[in-house]
Backbone:
């Protein structure tokens, strides 16, 4: 199954790239996503029941932490695949595009078969990130996510998307290069003439088992480079500069995958380093670094969200906020770390929901400005209702799942004695809530634009995936299933 979960999207992507017509691509994409989700569910069942699936001599051997992020990526891709069918059909109908707000004039899209193929390659690279225990293979797969997602950002061929793509490539490649240096320093830290010549493919387990014999100076240096390298791809401030441009210029379905799945994959690389630091009894340093970057990300998000008029950039800075919350919870540990695992799940679902809805809004209003979008409740009643629900969810309001996860992190802060940090955490969340509410409520309320019909038809596939995601986010706020909670606790226990 582990080989199949990689081979399936790769083979499908190659078929699309070389032989795919529009109808075939639109048929294969959701079928591939559905089969990938079934394989992921089977792997998750094995891991949840104490089994250790393995393939390719241990190169593929996921643990609970990896399977958690694999499941998130697979579920989001399934939702996005159905949305993509409606999106590509609408893009084909429009043909040549004119972006009124940005004044790019006319521009064309890249071929649909190439777009669909690179979506599959993107899924394969994210899957490899999550199921390999080898730090080198993980580094290669994280770089592969960059290369496979860059053409997706440049789907609309105009100068702003080209600029965003190059910015994404350059900044993330520099970050990944620093992460490579961190991996090299990690090997230096464990080098010893008496050590086994080959640790095998399960490097994470080997490093953890021999962590007390590592050179602490080299190990600390390695973790610094891992944090800076993978933190860049994760979107932690002040390393987040690529994120607002890429998220705002990419098609909304691509932004949903970047924010909901890709950032988690980058975080997994950082967490592997944190696991090793904990085992080497250097967890205090790694925890303090995560807390610092987490708090700095929250402050940065609060500054840029307030007064932000570009609603896709608003969601991008919200991703910076929530990556900060995750880093904060993981750095504190204990109950906060368990809350962070739940937060990773619910944030991914919610952010995917909002980005898909932003695509509906952009297709209808032809503007990125929240000041120019008015009366969503009249012009797009389904999208408007889900947009309002998504705002309350992403802002951490009850009864949605993010309220539960943020409260668990808050209780964890207090339990560990971080009183002033807990107070700062609440204040920053309150500021961000105000900034989000001003923009989102302004878009939903207001009078209907005179040039738009009252209740135009909304394609089913453009609102059904967001609706399912909204139900999941609400359900996790009302009740977290015991099986899921035990799995989250097990994943959290791997990182302290």
Residues:
């Amino acid at each position: 199954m582990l080989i199949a979960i990689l081979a399936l999207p790769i083979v499908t992507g190659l078929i699309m790239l070389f032989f795919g017509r529009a109808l075939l691509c639109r048929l294969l994409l959701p079928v591939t996503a559905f089969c990938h989700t079934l394989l992921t569910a089977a792997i998750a069942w094995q891991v949840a029941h104490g089994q250790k699936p393995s393939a390719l001599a241990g190169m593929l051997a996921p643990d609970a932490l990896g399977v958690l992020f694999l499941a998130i990526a697979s579920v989001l891709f399934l939702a996005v695949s159905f949305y993509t069918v409606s999106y590509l059909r609408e893009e084909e109908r429009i043909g040549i595009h004119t972006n009124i707000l940005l004044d790019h004039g006319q521009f064309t899209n890249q071929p649909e078969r190439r777009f669909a193929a690179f979506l599959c390659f993107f899924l394969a690279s994210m899957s490899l990130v999550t199921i390999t225990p080898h730090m080198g293979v993980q580094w290669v797969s994280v770089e592969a996510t960059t290369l496979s997602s860059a053409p997706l950002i440049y789907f609309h061929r105009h100068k702003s998307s080209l600029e965003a793509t190059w910015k994404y490539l350059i900044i993330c490649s520099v970050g990944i290069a620093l992460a490579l240096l961190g991996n090299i320093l990690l090997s230096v830290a464990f080098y010893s003439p008496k050590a086994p010549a080959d640790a095998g493919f399960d490097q994470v387990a080997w490093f953890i088992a021999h962590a007390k014999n590592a050179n602490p100076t080299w190990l600390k240096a390695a973790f610094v480079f891992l944090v800076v390298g993978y933190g860049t791809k994760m979107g932690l401030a002040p390393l987040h500069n690529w994120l607002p441009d890429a998220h705002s210029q990419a098609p909304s379905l691509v932004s949903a995958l970047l924010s909901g799945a890709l950032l988690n994959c980058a975080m997994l690389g950082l967490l592997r380093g944190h696991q090793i630091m904990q085992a080497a009894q250097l967890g205090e340093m790694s925890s303090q670094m995560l807390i610092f970057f987490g708090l700095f990300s929250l402050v940065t998000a609060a500054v840029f969200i307030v007064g932000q008029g570009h609603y896709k950039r608003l969601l991008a800075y919200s991703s910076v906020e929530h990556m900060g919350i995750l880093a904060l919870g993981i750095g504190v540990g204990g109950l906060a770390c368990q809350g962070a695992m739940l937060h990773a799940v619910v944030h991914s679902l919610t952010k995917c929901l909002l980005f898909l809805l932003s695509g509906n809004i952009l297709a209808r209003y032809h503007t990125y400005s929240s000041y120019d979008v008015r009366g969503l409740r009249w012009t797009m009643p389904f999208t408007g209702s889900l947009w309002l629900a998504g705002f309350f969810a992403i802002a951490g309001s009850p009864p949605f799942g993010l309220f539960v996860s943020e409260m668990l992190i808050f209780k964890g802060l207090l339990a560990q004695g971080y009183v002033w940090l807990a107070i700062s955490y609440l204040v920053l969340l309150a500021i961000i809530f105000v900034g989000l509410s001003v923009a989102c409520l302004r878009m939903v309320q207001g009078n209907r634009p005179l040039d738009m019909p009252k209740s135009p038809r909304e394609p089913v596939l453009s609102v059904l995936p967001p609706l399912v995601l909204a139900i999941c986010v609400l359900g996790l706020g009302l009740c977290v299933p015991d099986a899921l909670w035990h799995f989250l606790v097990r994943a959290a226990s791997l990182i302290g």
Observations:
- The longest strand covers residues 97-98.
- The first helix runs from residue 2 to 19.
